[in-house]
Amino acid sequence: MKPSPGRRRQRLAEATSDAVVMDERIWKKLEEDVLLDKVLPIMEIRDLCRFRAVCKRWSRLIYEPEFAKSIKSDVPYMLIAAEKFNLGRRHYDKWEICDTRTQEHYLLDDSFMNRLPMNRQRSTDTEILFDRPRQSMRSHLAADKGFICVLWRREYGPDTTIYVVNPITKSFQQIPSLDSKLADSSYDRNFRFTMVVADDHLSFKLFVLQELCLEFSNDNSRYLFDSKVGSWQELARPSFKTDSGQYRMCHLLKVNNMVYTFIMTYDQTTSRELSVYNTDTDIWTDLEVEIPNFRDFLQRRFKQLVASAGRLFFTVWEEKDPNYVPPLGRQRIQIWEVDLVSKKCEKVEPTNRIDLSGLFEFEISHARRGNGRCVINVYGSPKVLAIGTDDGCIVFTSVSGSSVAFRLSTRSWEPMHDWPSVDLGRPDQARRVGLFGCMMPLTLLPVPSVAEPVHAVVP
């Protein structure tokens, strides 16, 4: 794991004192049981990744299965990455995590992804991405408990490969392709993914939910992959109150084993329903929450559900602010708290104002074009991402790299450090679309193997 460039320079300035403490000779005579029982367990996984270079003993001990099972990070980090981006030859991006308590940013190197095999349509052999002349697109589909679900897809062609990876240990498992099951394999447009990792990290489940016409679609495009089974199986068709078949899921939010979503229905009038899907029982439930019918709900740029400190919210960012006072409030964010008991939503009124112009620049869809970088806006891709933290904050981050936080206890806006690498990644990056992110702890445990693994060997 690599810290951001600014933090790396600061640590270089402190290298003199660190060099004495981290001298390998100090640790040579220290008993391994002392290291395993007294020293290493009190370190955060972030620090273990940084200190594993102290000596070979540390690196070996840290990756031993027994130690990996005993160490568990209770500190969730905010993960941010491009939702999807196109990759040319030898191009790659990085994952970034942030400790929201200290606002320190760290980069997770993902160059190992370039060595993973990719499915080929006309051959049973694998093809190494690093040697391919044709561009591909990488999408981040879901994440949970330290694992990330990633999709490789050819820019021109139907070939796709799905991986579940651990960005810390670089372990991975290749998932059987869904191409043969889905009539339309446009994963990034018509389907939404969510992942549930078991608490013991010994298994995981992937859920694929069709975005449009959930109940009355001719093709059942709701699938589950269980790593214990090793194959895809169909999910039950959801049942809703209305008879109309025109549905759209606006956003998915996973909280433990429950997946919350807005269901937009289009009939004579447009209505909104807040529904929840139980991943254990495969049952949909209409929560019957009274969602406010404020003006132009559908025309707002992006609606997102957010969970923070055990409470449920939804956010909407608007294109214009009727109370515009330059330079504050050029664009406005609305936050509503969902009360599942009273079945109502209460608007959260802020006690202060903050300059949000950095989040909502007019030319944000072509930010920093002069540097050869370009962000494009794709249907359903958030240019502003809302993530709830456990300490009662909702963090808003945009593709420009700017961030602000809303403190729920005081109902006030707070400034945040910008994301160093969210700024579109490498200068030679071809295209980067939207943001993907969530709060999750890190783990040293490997990605569990599937019951019927796809043979994939990294040379």
From TrEMBL:
<protein>
    <recommendedName>
        <fullName>F-box domain-containing protein</fullName>
    </recommendedName>
</protein>
<dbReference type="InterPro" id="IPR036047">
    <property type="entry name" value="F-box-like_dom_sf"/>
</dbReference>
<dbReference type="InterPro" id="IPR015915">
    <property type="entry name" value="Kelch-typ_b-propeller"/>
</dbReference>
<feature type="domain" description="F-box">
    <location>
        <begin position="35"/>
        <end position="67"/>
    </location>
</feature>
<dbReference type="InterPro" id="IPR050796">
    <property type="entry name" value="SCF_F-box_component"/>
</dbReference>
<dbReference type="Pfam" id="PF00646">
    <property type="entry name" value="F-box"/>
</dbReference>
<dbReference type="InterPro" id="IPR001810">
    <property type="entry name" value="F-box_dom"/>
</dbReference>
